[in-house]
């Protein structure tokens, strides 16, 4: 069996139908990291909103903890996180395409070593889904379908105000059955 080639850098690009400030705010807020980046369990920052030298402690699904500092920050344009433990860095660049569409570039690299578990496009697709749908999944169990309807209605009111109760229930049933939503909801959230 052939081994997959190891990378020294990884560049991913995605177009998101939101403004640069909304995407930047969501992607760098430590309370959201584990919701879109699948191997992150928890992220704690020493301050928020961030600035250069803000420190983030990130716990991975492997029970390891890594420490990063923000070494570059231009609000709504770019942020660079650099590891304390290694020569690893990751840069998020936000490029407005229109007033409501932004290209996000996720670029990670190691100066000397190879990347261990580089980010996959599925993480950025999850971020896109969360930001575009204005969803802020909370880390507690929900087994009640009515609870999800209430959560969705509050967070997506602009979209649902013109729908009937039946149309909304049908949309929510389809959404909860989709693979994208199942991936997004897996962080300790159970839908019964």
Quick gist of this model?
The protein has 192 residues and is of the alpha+beta class. Helices cover 31% and strands 28% of the residues.
Describe the structure.
With 192 residues, the protein is an alpha+beta fold. Helix content is 31%, strand content 28%. The protein has a seven-stranded antiparallel β-sheet. A hairpin with a 3-residue loop joins strand 4 and strand 5 (78-83). Mean pLDDT is 78; it is low at 138-149 and 179-192.
Widest beta sheet: strand line-up: 1-7-6-5-4-3-2
Largest sheet: 7 strands, antiparallel
Note poorly predicted spans: 138-149, 179-192
Strand content: 25-35%
Number of strands: 7
Q: How many alpha or pi helices?
A: 7
Amino- and carboxy-terminal Cα gap = 41 Å
- What series of H and E elements makes up the topology? EHHEEEEEEHHHHH
How much is the radius of gyration in Å?
18 Å
Mean pLDDT: 78
**What percent of the residues sit in helical stretches (DSSP H or I)?**
25-40%
Oligomer: single chain
Class by alpha and beta content: alpha+beta
**Can you tell me the overall shape?**
globular
Entry keywords:
seven-stranded antiparallel beta sheet; 28% strand; disordered C terminus
What topology does this entry show?
Elements: E1 9-16, H1 20-28, H2 33-36, E2 40-45, E3 55-60, E4 65-74, E5 78-83, E6 88-96, E7 102-110, H3 121-132, H4 145-155, H5 157-160, H6 165-177, H7 179-185
Antiparallel strand pairs: 1-7, 2-3, 3-4, 4-5, 5-6, 6-7
